[in-house]
Amino acid sequence: MGRQIGKRASRGASVGFAFVALLMATAGYLYGQEGSATEAGKATVSTQPAQRDYRFEVASIRPGPPDGRLSGPPGPSYTPGHFRTEATTIPGLAFQAFRKKQGFELESPQWMVTTHFAVNATIPEGATKADLPIMIQHLLEDRFVLKYHHVTRQMAGYELVVAKSDPRLAKSATPDFDGAKLGGSGFEIRDGTVQFAKDAGSVDMCFGGGCALHGRNRTMPTLASDLARRLAVPVMDATGLEGGYDYTVIFIPPPMSGPGIVVSPGGGVPITELPDGPLEHPILRDALREQLGLELRPVKNVPVDVVIIDSANKVPTEN
């Protein structure tokens, strides 16, 4: 388990926080997924695995674009031996350090959301992309003197359950396959419809007017986490289905905001209760029921581990 960053600050110091909304494109954008096919737990946030204790060999931090916009395309965040990002924030780094994926999992003071930095770091020999979280934790501790604390909150969200029609999921025939592996290839678009090869890895993608969640040896907690990102509200697994499954669900993408986070220029604004009535995204609801035999049931008590950033230096220590 990676050690904590800095000292725990008192709750009285945590004033004026803003939720950081995670935006995602809904057309023509392919992005990777993280998380092991063997991860356990029913909440959207699982316990971090044991980490090797690495530090960046050299890390340059300089001011980023004032508005976070780049004049050209950013370089890759990770290449073997290097980590680089041209317009990140302290919360943005914290998302990676704490393995968070949704905006409701992390809070920070407002100034952190709008203050950007460019980071260029050298990864020590023997470290891999999987070791980035602990290295970023050390970077935040050493260069920004980050202080934070954890709280567990009961949030309104959904639980993923088996529909009355029973699940329509195939037990994975490849138990040794890493379900978090990117598909990358192994699929093609034909007449506006995505088709996956038998050896395609897990992928979350959008194409034209639709989106697809393709899982290979993926657990139900992982699927719940994928749905939480799509809906921008907590989703916990309550299916009782264990082990890895292969599946594909194709649906029309929901809006870029959901009942849990409202996207605004200053970040997301938390909403404590779901709206009355049916799900806000009936097409996704219908796709889950018809294609996978699963349903999303509204609940008001999804436990979520939230990292609250109490303070950090506005100017990092010198390179």
Descriptive report:
It is built from 5 helices and 18 strands. Helix 1 runs antiparallel to helix 3. The chain is globular, with a radius of gyration of 20 Å. It has a 5-stranded mixed beta sheet. The chain has a 5-stranded antiparallel beta sheet with strand order 2-12-13-15-9. Strands 3-7-5-4 form a 4-stranded antiparallel beta sheet, covered by helices on one side. By secondary structure, the chain is α+β, with helices and mostly antiparallel strands. The longest helix is centred in the middle third of the chain and has 13 residues. The two termini are 28 Å apart.
Q: Widest sheet: strand order?
A: 1-6-18-8-14
Low-pLDDT segments? 1-48, 179-184, 256-281
Approximately how much helix is present in the residues?
Answer: 10-25%
User: What's the N-to-C terminus distance?
Assistant: 28 Å
Strand segment tally: 18
User: Major beta sheet, specifics?
Assistant: 5 strands, mixed
Tally of helical segments: 5
Q: Which shape, going by the Cα principal axes? A: globular
